[in-house]
Design brief:
single chain; mainly beta; four-stranded antiparallel β-sheet; 0% helix
């Protein structure tokens, strides 16, 4: 069973940076895609970024492209989200998620970590 544990959230001023981590366990992830999503109060959960575990191919939402960077450490089974130039509108609970490359939907989720950006 896949387990995902996020860490690294917190309170930061606008323009600052945070680095989120997602420790993955429970299986081999070579055929998986790892994603970051976020959900602000009263809003739908939205896609932020994803990375293929094997080749490291990345995809970003328009709202974060150029400011956020997703990466992974295969040896440590950990996925990162480096967030720079943070804005108040980035405030949300950030979730790590995983899916097999054969699946269209993410089916494993972490518990989430709060990111709050003050103006």
């Amino acid at each position: 069973q896949v387990q995902l544990v996020e860490s690294g959230g917190g309170l930061v001023q606008a323009g600052g940076s945070l680095r989120l981590s997602c420790a993955a366990s429970g299986r081999t992830f070579s055929n998986y895609i790892m994603g970051w999503f976020r959900q602000a109060p009263g809003e739908e959960r939205e896609f932020v970024a994803s990375i293929t575990w094997s080749r490291g191919n990345t995809v970003y939402a328009d709202s974060v492209r150029g400011r956020f960077t997703i990466s992974r450490d295969n040896a440590k089974n950990t996925v990162f989200l480096q967030m720079n130039s943070l804005k108040p509108e980035d405030t949300a609970v950030y979730y790590c998620a995983a899916r097999s490359i054969r699946n269209s939907k993410y089916d494993s989720w972490g518990q989430g970590t709060q990111v709050t950006v003050s103006s």
